[in-house]
Specification:
By secondary structure, this protein is an alpha/beta fold. It has three domains: about 130 residues, NAD(P)-binding Rossmann-like Domain (Rossmann fold), CATH 3.40.50.720; about 150 residues, Succinyl-CoA synthetase domains (Rossmann fold); about 30 residues, no CATH class. Helix content is about 40%, strand content about 20%. It contains twelve helices and 16 strands. Helix 3 packs parallel to helix 4, helix 6 packs across helix 11 and helix 7 packs parallel to helix 8. The chain starts with a helix and ends with a strand. About 45% of the residues are buried.
Length: about 325
């Protein structure tokens, strides 16, 4: 039996709840992408007010479909999203992708309690959930682009050796765009949003195990599930796949922003550094670091350790090099 993680990476059938004729709307863009980029599975638009959406026969509800879709995209707001998630569980959907926001990432109110309750109901029915507040999942090898990002209109997808898994929607596609600008193809670009059920760490495990992936890039605002991140790193090491993580929330201001963005509780920075180093995950300091390191790894360069030397005809540049190395946690070896 296929698991929710199998479905996240390669769904055999997809329903879009809140399907829109307008490809610029959240419920319309996934349909556009699935058609444009060659997805070969079954696509079911769900819209009670239309019989056809973007050239596809539409159904008023999941109950009116000939089968339970493996993946259901929930692109309706508020209370309608909660009702849609419950309907997914009742009809046998394996994985629900909630693009809807206003849950655990919202300050005040009962958003977190509502999020936890609806996930508990989903799990009781054997269904996994990505999101809420997720920009989407994208597999460019199969054309299963269940996302509302505009990036894939602006920058044409090309399959390649890189997998990107991010808690943030933007940071699932910004590295994608920068890599594509350098001629590098990307296999996966997934955003988990609030991590209410399927976490960024679990999805990293699945992507690390994809035979097409030779490099795994992560964007983390927290580490919600250290056990699964450690397992993702183990799988990657076994396959010889480098893992690079950009972990934000270094400062108090960054941690506060993370809480309002995805509802993440950022981890103590020194603890994060130690954890990533222990599991062989290289930590990038910014997006530029992430992309430059990706280029080096894809060219076959792998660091053998933290030791290096600085050689120059200028003492000043050696001093500056020593400062820069120290700031990055590297050690300059003495020459014998």
């Amino acid at each position: 039996m296929r698991s929710g993680l199998d479905v996240a990476l390669n769904p055999k059938s997809i329903a879009v709840i809140g399907a829109s004729e307008n490809p610029n709307k959240i419920g319309g863009r996934p349909l556009l992408y699935l058609s444009r980029f060659g997805y070969r599975g079954k696509v079911y638009p769900i819209n009670p007010n239309r019989t056809e959406v973007q050239g596809l026969a539409a159904a008023p509800s999941l109950l009116d479909l000939p089968e339970a879709p493996e993946l259901a995209i929930i692109a309706v707001p508020g209370a309608a999203a909660v009702e849609a998630l419950d309907a997914c569980g009742e009809t046998g959907v394996k994985l629900a992708l909630m693009m809807s926001s206003g849950f655990g990432e919202s300050e005040g109110g009962d958003g977190m309690a509502q999020q936890e309750a609806m996930v508990a109901r989903a799990r009781a029915r054997g269904m996994r959930v990505v999101g809420p507040n997720s920009q989407g999942l994208a597999n460019f090898g199969t054309g299963a682009i269940a996302s509302f990002s505009t990036m894939f209109i602006e920058v044409e997808p090309k399959d390649g050796p890189v997998g990107i898994v991010s808690q943030s929607g933007a940071m699932s596609v910004v590295p994608y765009g920068l890599l594509r600008g350098r001629g590098i193809g990307v296999r996966h670009a997934h955003a988990t949003g609030n991590d209410c059920d399927v976490t960024v760490c679990e999805l990293a495990m699945a992507v690390a195990d994809d035979p097409a992936v030779r490099l795994l890039l992560l964007y983390l605002e927290s580490i919600p599930d250290p056990k699964h991140l450690a397992e993702a790193a183990r799988i990657a090491r076994r396959r010889g796949v480098p893992v690079i993580a950009l972990k934000s929330g270094r400062s108090a201001a960054g941690q506060a922003a993370a809480r309002s963005h995805t509802g993440a509780l950022a981890n103590e920075d020194a603890v994060v550094d130690a954890f990533l180093e222990q599991h062989g995950i290289w930590r990038a300091r910014d997006t530029g670091d992430l992309v430059h390191a990706a280029e080096l790894y894809l060219k076959g360069w792998k660091p053998e350790g933290r030791r290096l030397v600085a050689i120059s005809n200028s003492g000043a540049t050696c001093v500056l090099a020593a400062d820069a190395a120290s700031a990055q946690g590297l050690t300059l070896d003495a020459l014998s």
